[in-house]
Amino acid sequence: MTLTSPFLLAIVAITVLALIGQPIGLAMLVGSIFYLLLAGADLGTVAEQFLNGMYSNFVILAVPLFILAAELMNSGSLTERLLRFCNALVGRFRGGLAQVNVLQSVIFAGMSGSAIADAAGSGKMMQHMMTKDGRYPPSFAAALTAASAVIGPIIPPSIPMVLYALVSDASIGFLFLGGVVPGIMMGAAQSAIIATTARRRKFPVEPPVPLRQIPRITWDSLPALMMPVVLMVGIYGGVTTPTEAAAVAACYALVISVLLYRSISLRSLYASLLTSARTTASIGMLIAGALVFNYVVTIENIPDSIRVLLTDWNLNQIGFLIFVNVLLLVLGCVLEGTAILLVIVPVFIPTAQALGIDMVHFGVVVVVNTMLGLITPPYGMLLFIVGKTSGAPLRHIVRDTMPFLIAMLAVLVLITFVPDLVLWLPRLLGYQG
Amino acid sequence: MSSFVRGVGGWLRRRAENVAAAMLAVMFLAFIAQIVMRYVLGLPTGWTNELTVILWLWLVLFGCAFVVREDEEIRLDLIYSAAPAPARRVMKIVSAVALVSMFAISLPAVIDYVGFMKVQKTAYLKIRFDYLYSIYVVFVLAMIVRYLWLGWYAIWGTDEAKAPASGEDPA
After folding, report:
1. How far apart are alpha carbons B75 and A17 in whole angstroms?
2. A286 — contact with chain B (CB < 8 Å)?
3. CA nearest to A27 within chain B
4. Residue A358 to residues A207, A361, A413, B116: CA-CA distances in angstroms?
5. Using one digit for the tens of pLDDT, what is the confidence trace for B109-149?
6. Where would I find the H helices in B117-128?
7. Distance between CA A106 and CA A120 in Å, rounded?
8. Which residues pair with B110 in a beta bridge?
9. For residues B7 and A46, what is the distance between their CA atoms, to the nearest angstrom?
10. Model confidence over A307-355: pLDDT tens digits?
């Protein structure tokens, strides 16, 4: 490959356009047109790849539906009720609200499938609660919200895992199960960090909710708490495909908001639909741009060249996983997660397969890795979102994120080297891998 | 005149929003219908599948052409937002030239491809693929118009200037 090869020039074009602020999906689309032009190929191929890619990949439909489900939960009062429930459980400890933040992320993770939706919905409420009356430093509240939102797409359902399934053909159902243990480990790690720093940083204690009120609060939030159960039974009971489960989640959120909690009006329903439609369109464009550019990467035979190159290095499984992890963490600082999952990760899949690495294990590792990219500066999408809510300087938020980031990196290392942590649960439920 | 144009633009934009929200709503309902038909009534359906995929494709292209606002697009704007005004203007012009030229150059081949697809129909709803895929041509045209507009304003416009419906909130 020479410096003036169409492929390298296309990459330069995409990078420049993205860096000067163009939407990443459009940049990849335009870069692909540029590539075909330089390569003297038919430019209609861009339309063909875009349209057929979007039309024939049924699994991506889970994406808009999970977005809608999250939006409906946030606009109904499900989020509030769940927060009250979490507060009744762990608010009484030192740093109680911080613990609530982690616990709600673990529970919400069972519903929305998107870290961005979690941070913008329940995470935003948590940030307001934590900083009200100056109880927690705004930068800490923001950092914790970003860190705990990362758990969202690790514990099923998960939009990033849907995207990985799209490029790897691994089973979405088993990928979802594989995320459960790592997700809970990350929650536990965050909770431990809060417990150890709470005294030193003099975090407040919430007025304890009397024990006799707990049954009522639990009952009140029970329909919302049942949502993950409904989803899991749907998927693993063989009732719905994971994609349909996303529709069921949205339907469930709508039904309990309307019938049980009576907390949603026609107007707010329309607002939820419109917001979800906007998010769907912009994420969809990113996915489509990545699919088109993926085609370019494939006809350039990049995945195979990488496999040959890495085979020459004589990497074993461990060496390869370390290499991919380090590379993705570095890329995660400057690239967006969806683009990494749809463009970079597929490049390594043939090598992973050749080395005999389990595709579910590999999937969970790369998803955890790319989600950490959401909180690594300079381009951590979650840092921007919590920063917008908090108003604290970004560098303070980054500083307060560090202990959580380090703890989650430790979890990443663990699941990389001990595949059983990921694969235990899927195998328990019938995964043959 | 200008306020009239803006009024019409705003009205069109709100109707486009209605359409996008409706697409998502129908998509959602079709999914629910599919699950109910299959598991409650024991009648597996193919058309619901097809309808949802079609709506997903249309929602993304129609939405990006007419509904999604600048601040909702997924982008890395750290460098852009830190740059001084003259540098931003240059960035806008470079982007506009790149996007307009690439989309415009690809347009004839795109129209060719979409037209060629008239030979196929979808499996259940029997929709001709050229109709189905025509939204991509609409999207490309909308992108060309939007970026021509943004580029024009970057070159000639003042900072307060506002672009119309398809390109509101200039980059």
Report:
1. 10
2. yes
3. B99
4. 48, 5, 16, 42
5. 999 999 999 999 998 999 999 999 999 999 999 999 999 99
6. none
7. 15
8. none
9. 36
10. 888 888 888 899 999 999 999 999 988 888 888 999 999 999 999 999 9
Identify all chain B residues contacting A36, using CB atoms and an 8 Å cutoff: 106
pLDDT classification of A11: cutoffs 50, 70, 90? very high
Tokens at A199, concatenated = 């005294």
**To probe the interface with A, which of B23, B36, B76 has the most A CB atoms within 10 Å?**
B76
* CB-CB under 8 Å, B59 with A20: no
Tokens matching residue A396: 């303070």
Q: Which of A16, A26, A279 is the best mutation test for B, with the most CBs of B within 10 A?
A: A26
CA distance A407 to A390: 23
pTM, to two decimals: 0.88
C-beta of residue A186 within 8 angstroms of C-beta of residue A150? yes
This complex has an ipTM of 0.89
For residues A425 and A47, what is the distance between their CA atoms, to the nearest angstrom?
Answer: 41
* Type of residue found at A408: M
Distance CA A348, CA A302 (A): 9
Give the residue from B26, B39, B60 with the most A CB atoms within 10 Å of its CB, the best one to mutate: B60
CB pairs under 8 A, 24+ apart, for A206-214? A206/A87, A206/A91, A206/A92, A206/A96, A206/A97, A206/A100, A207/A91, A208/A91, A208/A92, A209/A87, A209/A88, A209/A91, A209/A92, A213/A88, A214/A88, A214/A89
Considering only the C-alpha atoms of chain A, give the largest distance between any 2 of them, rounded to a whole number of Å: 74
Question: What's residue B159's pLDDT?
Answer: 54
CB-based contact, A296 to chain B, within 8 Å: no
Phi, psi (deg, nearest 5) at residue A205: -105, 140
* Cβ contact, residue pair A18, B52, below 8 Å: no
A343-380 as b/e: b if 16+ CB within 10 A: bbbbbbbbbbeebebbbbbbbbbbbbbbbbbbbbeebb
